[in-house]
Design brief:
GO molecular function: oxidoreductase activity
Oligomer: single chain
Protein name: NADP-dependent oxidoreductase domain-containing protein
InterPro entries: Aldo-Keto_reductase (IPR050791), NAD(P)_OxRdtase_dom_sf (IPR036812), NADP_OxRdtase_dom (IPR023210)
Largest sheet: 8 strands, parallel, barrel
Order of helices and strands: EEEHEHEEEHEHEHEHEHHEHHH
Keywords: Oxidoreductase
Low-confidence stretches: none
Strand content: 15-25%
Pfam families: Aldo_ket_red
Radius of gyration: 19 Å
Structural class: alpha/beta
Shape: globular
CATH topology: TIM Barrel
Length: 334
């Protein structure tokens, strides 16, 4: 397993991380035994970075990770946790809370659910519009001094917020969507992170399965959170699946699957970028790990750039109501 360092101040992790959200939420029912087996398979393959959120299944995901790690030696595992999203019993969303008191409260509960003494990377899931980022990061910095956190990260914020946060305490990495069809960070955010020495953990590298090569028109009736995604609706879906046909043609030439090429493309954008793969089953994890063997030549990269120029995807990556809460979208266009 290749390893990469997350920024100047962050940890060294596996070149691919495992995103565990789908094991608890958003993608319909999941098989608990298969989820744990998938986490074990990831660890056996050398993956060290597990990404979660305290609101994934309202704590379920953190407890699932604890269960998976309870039977395995995990001294090299790094756990990244997002916090701040508020939810109701019915699983509806109720805003964000990044006040210092809330930061310490969320952290205390996550430490308990995960069964660890310190969280490797801790980050607010979104920018709280009512709390200056300096106050949020300041509270997290206190927790670093006390030994409850090892590194501070950010998620889906723009350059101005990144700079303000980094001035309070070194930021290890920015977690943000980045893929062949979501290239908005290239216009400004990626440059800012590189200037400041901040790594990138890229989620959505397969655009929620859209460019995995496994999605088709006849799956349009699948009822999970993708039902509300503009990219999976109507004519947008038709146009986006046509893009996948281009990806499949390039993948066939390379001798890989569309998913493997899409993951390899993200990884090829810089040694400071760690793709997160959201595999819920071992077969999908195995496929994703195959991306590590894909070597993209300059000709391959040129062909992919031609097939997937910035803005090529039809529809936004989130519904408008969610985009309105994303600081990273203030200047992003894809």
């Amino acid at each position: 397993m290749e390893h990469r360092k997350l920024g100047k101040s962050g940890p060294t992790t596996s070149a691919i991380g495992l995103g565990t959200m789908g094991m608890s939420d958003f993608y319909g029912p999941a098989d608990r035994s298969e989820s744990i087996a998938t986490i074990h398979a990831a660890l056996d393959a050398g993956i060290t970075l597990l990404d979660t959120g305290d609101f994934y299944g309202m704590g379920h995901n953190e407890m699932l990770i604890r269960e998976a790690l309870s039977s395995r030696k995990h001294d090299k595992v790094q756990i990244s946790v997002k916090f701040g999203a508020l939810r109701e019993v019915e699983r509806n969303w109720n805003g964000y809370d990044s006040r210092p008191a809330a930061v310490k409260n969320f952290l205390a509960y996550s430490l308990q659910r995960l069964g660890v003494e310190a969280i490797d990377i801790y980050r607010p899931a979104r920018l709280d519009p009512d709390v200056p980022i300096e106050e949020t990061v300041g509270a997290m910095a206190e927790m670093v001094k006390k030994g409850h956190l090892k590194h501070i990260g950010l998620s889906e914020v723009g350059s101005e917020t990144i700079r303000r946060a980094h001035a309070v305490h070194p930021i290890a990495d920015l977690q943000i969507e980045y893929s062949l069809v979501s290239r908005g960070i290239e216009s400004d955010i990626l440059k800012t992170c590189r200037e400041l020495g901040i790594g990138i953990t890229a989620y959505g590298v397969l655009s929620r399965g859209l460019i995995s090569g496994h999605w088709s028109k006849d799956r349009a009736n699948v009822r999970d959170f993708r039902s509300n995604s503009p990219r999976f609706q109507g004519e947008n879906l038709d146009k986006n699946l046509a893009l996948v046909d281009s990806l499949r043609a390039i993948a066939d030439e390379i001798g890989a699957t569309p998913a493997q090429v899409a993951i390899a493309w993200v990884a090829a954008q810089g040694a400071d970028i760690v793709p997160l793969v959201g595999a819920r089953r071992r077969e999908r994890l195995t496929e994703a790990l195959g991306a590590l063997e894909v070597k993209l030549t300059n000709a391959h990269l040129a062909a992919l750039s031609k097939a997937f120029p910035p803005g090529a995807a039809a529809g936004n990556r989130y519904p408008d109501a969610q985009l309105a809460h994303m600081d990273s979208e203030k200047r992003a266009t894809a």
